Amino acid sequence: MLSRLLFLSAVLLILHGCAGRGTDGTTAKPKPEAGSPATGSVTPDKSSTSLNIASGPGIAERPDVQAFIGEISRKHGFDPKALSKVFAGVNFNQAILAAMAKPYEAKPWYSYKKLFLTDARVQGGIEFKQKNAQALADAESKYGVSQNIITAIIGVESSYGKRPGNYRVIDALSTLGFGYPKRGEYFRSELAHFLLLCRDEGMDPFQPIGSYAGAMGMPQFMPSSFRRLAADGDGDGKRDIWNNPADAIASVARYFSQNGWQTGAPIAVSAKVGEGVAYQGLVSKSLKPDRPLSQFVDIGITPEEAVTGSPWAALVKLEEESGPALWLGFQNLYAITRYNHSPLYAVAAYELSKRLVP
Ligand SMILES: [Ca+2]
Asked: How far away, in angstroms, is 120 Cα from ligand 1 center?
């Protein structure tokens, strides 16, 4: 145990001691988020909270890992020997590859919503709002993002911090970066961001835990999103999205404010369609608003609640058990998909937010 502690201390010193030599220029420069959601996954209610670490010899000797170490050392001023020592402690985890093969977003809406819109999650959200009223009010006034949406996102992502994931982030990102060719480049990039954030924040790289896709803490930020957009909500100089609700709240609000959230604007409404109206060709996959609401109304697709003005909208189709249900989504629903691309995710987060009024 002592040797493990000494090893980790050495790793921290090595990583942290290099900070001045980094050549990366991306820190704190927000960029458009197209194609790069905050999260790698969403986490429904699960009973297991124990950490899932595969045992293994470490992956430092793999040629692809050595090539990666060489590349990020040159680019960011890491010490390659120190990184090899880190990767000697990193484990490849088959459970992560198995989890990637079964995304929740592949389910139909009527199954998906049962996982996320539970009584426990609604109640948890009402309690979270009460406990964090000041931090939520501060974030809403600073970033212009509704408290109920911030709370719902943290609720859907991690059950308000109760389920931030069961994997060491470094194991998850390494397993996917070197064992999931379909998106290997993306996950290796996130792994580099993760090592940089550990160096920047003075964190032990074996400490942070997250989802099987490497999404971290209460808001399930990927490392690149953390580096660009995580915020220090309570002003203590640290961005602790794992344990500090004020930091998680401010980070989610900042993320939305940088990704097209319109303060006070509508999010979505359910819609009814007139008999015989051919709407199939109008259904949007991206949820990006593509025509004014008035055009939908002219065609015979009308909102079931009053909407002020004629904001641009996208037609959303969800599968209920009884058949298709139509929604009109506005810019703010699209902004939620900047956090996670799934339309099901966006509608679930919105539906949860509506239920958080005590
Ligand atoms: Ca803080």
From this structure: 28
